[in-house]
Design goal:
This protein has 2 domains: 13-171, Beta-Lactamase; 174-237, Winged helix-like DNA-binding domain superfamily/Winged helix DNA-binding domain (Arc Repressor Mutant, subunit A, Orthogonal Bundle), CATH 1.10.10. It has 8 helices and 5 strands. It has helices spanning 13-24, 29-43, 68-80, 84-90, 109-115, 147-194, 198-211, 216-226; strands at 48-54, 60-65, 94-97, 120-127, 131-139. The termini are far apart.
Length: 242
């Protein structure tokens, strides 16, 4: 961990721009997010950093972290349902914690974070046209974050938002592709077993989904993984619904 940086932006504007281009040029979104973390540690007001992503069903996860200790600090917040990185996901702006022990906003998480050696923190909201997550900048010593520190964090957060938006879109795309593939496999099972057409097999899956209040993707996964559907009879494979 780097602890000897000067306050504020540790890189020139040109160097920062080059760091952003380097992050954007990585082959995968995961590599790009890791590059943003590297940029944060080397140019931001912190010793370590992480990025929390907001996914479907309001699930939160750390998609990049500079080291395992910071990963643990994030995971404690998800486990305890409190902490600055959680609040920064939902609230625009930033949260500064000059002294973790003295701060009383997160009484369950703060003592656990202090045990890990974390003293101060700056968490910033990540967004484009919607909330994306938070950028979490950790310090291993008490630190009064001044205006230049916060501005540095905002600059990094702006770049992190763009990369995270791309990463989430990519993740959603692959999830959609996977879901379509599973649905296609489920159709194939019905086509072979009941001699249905592709469109009829899809209609059967959709009707079962509606009748049993299950998502279509879940129905398809159940059929593909087990070879059967609970309470499903040959009669339900009738194109007219029996």
């Amino acid at each position: 961990m780097t602890t000897s940086k000067t306050p504020g932006l540790g890189l020139s504007a040109a160097a920062m721009a080059e760091a952003v281009r380097a992050a954007a040029s990585r082959k995968t979104s995961r590599e790009s997010l890791s590059a943003v973390i590297d940029m944060a540690v080397h140019s931001g007001p912190c010793d370590s950093a992480s990025i929390t992503m907001l996914a479907k069903a309001n699930r939160l996860s750390t998609v990049a972290a500079s080291d395992p200790l910071i990963q643990k600090a994030d995971e404690l917040q998800y486990e305890l349902h409190e902490g600055p990185c959680l609040d920064a996901v939902w609230v625009e702006g930033h949260f500064t914690i000059p002294d973790i022990v003295a701060d009383g906003r997160w009484p369950h998480w703060a003592p656990r974070a202090a045990e890990l050696g974390i003293c101060s923190m700056l968490s910033l909201h990540l967004f484009t046209d919607t909330a994306l997550g938070s950028l979490n900048l950790y310090s291993l010593r008490p630190r009064e974050f001044d205006s230049s520190d916060i501005e540095a964090g905002r600059v990094i957060a702006a770049h992190a938002s763009v990369v995270l938006a791309y990463a989430r879109a990519e993740q959603n795309l692959w999830q959609a592709i996977d879901s379509r593939n599973v649905i296609g496999q489920a159709q194939g099972i019905l086509i072979e077993r009941y001699r249905l057409t592709p469109s009829t097999a899809f209609a059967v899956l959709r009707r079962y989904s509606q009748d049993h209040n299950m998502k279509l993707g879940v129905v398809a996964e159940e059929l593909v993984s087990t070879g059967a559907l609970p309470q499903f009879s040959a009669r339900e494979a009738d194109p007219e619904g029996g």
